[in-house]
């Protein structure tokens, strides 16, 4: 078995013994006097109380983190934003079947639909705000609890520093006084048992140094825990600020904007109604005036006309003359045709008589 080289103490020291406060230095030196390197139990139990506090403390913080689900707060805030967006103020009274309704009815119906939707969303938001308020109170309690944990961690770190300093004092004493004296006595002795006792002593020194190293690791954990606590605390504070901003600023502002939107919508619709009424009145007056003008002109024109127009009489007279002339022409032609027909009839009669005489004489 090889024996560790313990003739020099070259291990970097995490605590500068020369810069210790007097009261801390005195306490560390007092603890160092109680350490018996030769006693294995003394080595094993050294600083175990401070280590146990750090271990229990770390478990406590871990349990706090596990039991506190901050994720749902973010989800609740997201749900809040979605609920606010769900009520589309800019779509108030827009489109849909409402466009086909009478104007006044569309105004009333659209506003009622919007207000109904607002009341539904507002109820959801009120429930969300209640949850956020509860979460805010819990976060404030957590922030206060983290302050306590931070102070405890500082206490445990200070306690560890004392044990580490005491261990360094003891190690310095071992290398400077105890080990050289034992080595000198063993060198002057021929008894193999003395050599074994030196070897055992060096092993215990080595174990004590390992124990001291474990305390330094615990010290590092404690140092790292401090900013972790502050980080968690800062995140909680940011959530509290976000919740307060949502409850005190976002929600009231949103409600005010809804009221303003409804008022502006009603104003615009009333203005549009007034414009439509004015336009309808103007259109009616214009049409009436045009009808009056047209009727008056037609009446005057008809009133100035005679019972029978001269043009009508001229046409009737011309048609009458043409009728007489045409009738006379037709009668004349008829007389001529009748005369011709009588001649033809006479000829036919004579031809028939002649033919009959021929037959008779034959």
From TrEMBL:
Q: Which UniProt keywords apply?
A: Coiled coil
Instruction: Report the leader peptide range.
Output: none
**Coiled-coil region(s) at which residues?**
118-149
Q: Which family does it belong to?
A: Belongs to the TelA family.
Cite the PANTHER family for this sequence.
Answer: TELA-LIKE PROTEIN SAOUHSC_01408
**Could you identify this protein by its name?**
Tellurite resistance protein
Species this protein is from = Geofilum rubicundum JCM 15548
